[in-house]
Amino acid sequence: MTNDLPAFDDLPVIDGLGLRHAWGVFGDADDLGTINLLTPDCVVKASRLVETGEVVNLSLPLTEPEPPLFGREPLRHEIHNIDRNTLDDSVSSLFTQASSQWDGLRHIRAREFGYYGGVTDDFEPGAGRLGIEHWAAHGMVGRGLLLDVAAYFEAQGEPFDPHAARAVSADDLRAVADHQGVAIETGDVLCLRFGWVERYQALNRPAREKYAANVTAAGLAGSEDMARLLWDWHVAAVACDNPAVEVAPGDSAVGSLHRRLLPLLGFAFGEMLDFSVLADRLRERARWTFMFTAVPLNLPGGVGSPANAVAIL
Predict the structure, then answer these.
(1) 10 Å Cβ neighbour count for 47?
(2) Does residue 2 belong to any structural domain of this protein?
């Protein structure tokens, strides 16, 4: 895939929604969406970023957040004695989008117009169109680029609470990139640190319970300007440390970034990734790029997956 993708403003509009879509841009029966941009050349270029070989985990424990957000059930982990020399274990109530996660292309529908590509299937478990297994087979390996949104606002002397419902605009993202002196390249995995994880991990149990009952978080604006920026940057995925990528709660007058990006443009969304250690390591090295690797669960027909993501420095 090259840089000759159509500009956002050249994409067709679904009249019933008034929103632009990229159905057919990557092929008529495409199951990857923007993950198509993670080409072999991107992988090779990313590998050249490795200097020390240090691996930084980007995933929270599967048991966090605890209690789970958005009404999901907590994971239950059991260890079984097969015989006196052998242990096995099992998990139940594994909500694939309860911790650090990927939102797959079955996650959000654009009303009666369908899922990404105009697919209108009523999905059942098992392999098929838009299942997470397609991302697992392709792999999610490329150049990661961290934009430290929280650090930018701090440097500007602006109050910034990652647990407050603040919408970060397209102009804000451009300003963060300019502040860090970085340029976004086609196929980048765009990683955005709002400082949500560190703020959450500092909460005690009663505060976590109160937060889970009313989730608010800084995040990307749900606007057309934001969709335009991310598409025209041609990033392969948007991975954030907050619970929903976009601001929570959203504003219906502005629109839903989930609807604009997942079913209409085929974006990969990563949520609640942990960039706390990575940000420190990159700042020490005066660089913001790294090799990003994630392997979603090879779950046929999966709607989402634990992130299983690492950075290699």
Answers:
(1) 13
(2) no
CATH number at residue 257: 3.50.30.50
- As a whole number, the mean pLDDT across the chain is 96
**Model pLDDT for residues 98-130, shown as the tens digit of each residue:** 999 999 999 999 999 999 999 999 999 999 999
| pTM exceeds 0.85, yes or no | yes
Q: Is residue 50 part of a domain?
A: yes
Per-residue model confidence as pLDDT tens digits over 37-96: 999 999 999 999 999 999 999 999 999 999 999 999 999 999 999 999 999 999 999 999
